[in-house]
């Protein structure tokens, strides 16, 4: 049974961690001030500002920061500063039993996808595919904050996910109805788990996929690897987000890839959801049950991220 974290309220304490690549210290401090201006208290992990090339310090140090936030009774929400690379390196150092016994909401996307799914699979805790610290700034669309706080601060369900008016609505591509826990996120990050103890389990799941800054032939390679690994065989349904800044390759586009590769899988399929690296980001609780109606192009959350 899924475990929900306590709901977030103004005045609660937010724990900041850096779990993959480093983020400029000035940007971190600026985003923290924005959070504080929203009425939240903030605690910062000891290794948040560490840097070792493209990694934010050691794997052990990053893992210690994360576990300390779960152990801190005052922390209600854990926000990674960014994604980047290297999040998978901290997984062997995590205690999923402690995480389950001290549930805290953790939110993110990009390389944080690896952590969101591992926590969901190994502790049963619902995580949130939504904002990171880097997104807490004046330029962030109101839609993103509305989605985030609807998921983080309310247990009201069912909750229908709809794109903002600035985007085209989601589109059903293969009709059918799928009901199951949400899983997934960034495609590159998910492929990186294959063959490891933390490989994503897609059986019976509603699988979210999104990508950024990869040419379409590389996106094809990743999808083919997921297929060969059996990750589409027993999936309940698939919802695809944008492929932001993904260049066409050999005359083929992301839309062509959906039509030529994803549609023939025959699974209920909805495309075009606002998520992840796109400008607009729906808040999607990983591990919570959802109903994907690919005949009408709708996604309805049946379980909340918080209790």
Helices and strands in order:
Elements: E1 13-17, H1 25-37, E2 41-44, H2 59-71, E3 75-80, H3 96-101, E4 105-108, H4 112-123, E5 127-129, H5 142-153, E6 159-161, E7 171-174, E8 177-186, H6 187-191, E9 206-212, H7 216-228, E10 237-244, H8 254-262, E11 269-273, E12 284-286, E13 289-293, E14 298-301
Parallel strand pairs: 1-2, 1-3, 3-4, 4-5, 8-9, 9-10, 10-11
Antiparallel strand pairs: 5-12, 6-14, 7-11, 8-13, 13-14
Briefly summarize what is shown.
This protein is an alpha/beta fold and 307 residues long.
Q: Overview of this structure, please?
A:
With 307 residues, the protein is an alpha/beta fold. Helices cover 27% and strands 23% of the residues. The protein has helices spanning 25-37, 59-71, 96-101, 112-123, 142-153, 187-191, 216-228, 254-262, and strands at residues 13-17, 41-44, 75-80, 105-108, 127-129, 159-161, 171-174, 177-186, 206-212, 237-244, 269-273, 284-286, 289-293, 298-301. Strands 6-14-13-8-9-10-11-7 form an eight-stranded mixed β-sheet. Strands 2-1-3-4-5-12 form a six-stranded mixed β-sheet, sandwiched between helices. Strand 1, helix 1 (25-37) and strand 2 form a beta-alpha-beta unit. The mean pLDDT is 98.
């Amino acid at each position: 049974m899924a475990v929900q974290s306590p709901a977030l309220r103004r005045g609660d304490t937010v724990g900041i961690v850096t779990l993959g690549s480093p983020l400029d210290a000035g940007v971190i401090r600026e985003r923290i001030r924005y959070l504080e201006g929203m009425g939240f208290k903030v605690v910062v992990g000891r290794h948040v500002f560490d840097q070792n090339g493209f990694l934010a310090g050691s794997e052990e140090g990053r893992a210690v920061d994360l576990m300390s936030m779960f152990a801190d009774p005052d922390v209600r929400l854990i926000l990674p500063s960014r994604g980047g690379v290297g999040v998978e390196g901290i997984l062997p150092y995590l205690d999923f039993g402690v995480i389950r016994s001290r549930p805290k909401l953790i939110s993110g996307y990009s390389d944080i996808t690896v952590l969101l799914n591992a926590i969901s699979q190994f502790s049963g805790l619902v995580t949130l595919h939504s904002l990171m610290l880097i997104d807490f700034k004046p330029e962030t669309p109101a839609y993103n904050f509305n989605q985030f706080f609807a998921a983080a601060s309310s247990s009201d369900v069912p909750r229908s996910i709809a794109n903002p008016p600035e985007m085209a609505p989601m589109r059903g591509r293969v009709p059918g109805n799928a009901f199951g826990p949400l899983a997934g996120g960034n495609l590159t990050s998910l492929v990186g788990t294959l063959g490891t103890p933390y490989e994503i389990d897609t059986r019976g799941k509603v699988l979210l996929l999104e990508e950024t800054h990869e040419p379409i032939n590389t996106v094809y390679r990743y999808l083919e690897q997921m297929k060969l690994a059996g990750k589409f065989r027993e999936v309940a349904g698939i919802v695809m987000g944008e492929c932001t800044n993904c260049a066409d390759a050999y005359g083929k586009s992301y839309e062509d890839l959906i039509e030529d590769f994803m549609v023939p899988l025959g699974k209920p399929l909805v495309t075009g959801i606002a998520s992840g690296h796109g400008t607009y980001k729906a808040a999607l609780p990983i591990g919570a049950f959802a109903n994907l109606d690919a005949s009408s192009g709708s996604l309805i959350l049946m379980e909340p991220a918080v209790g």
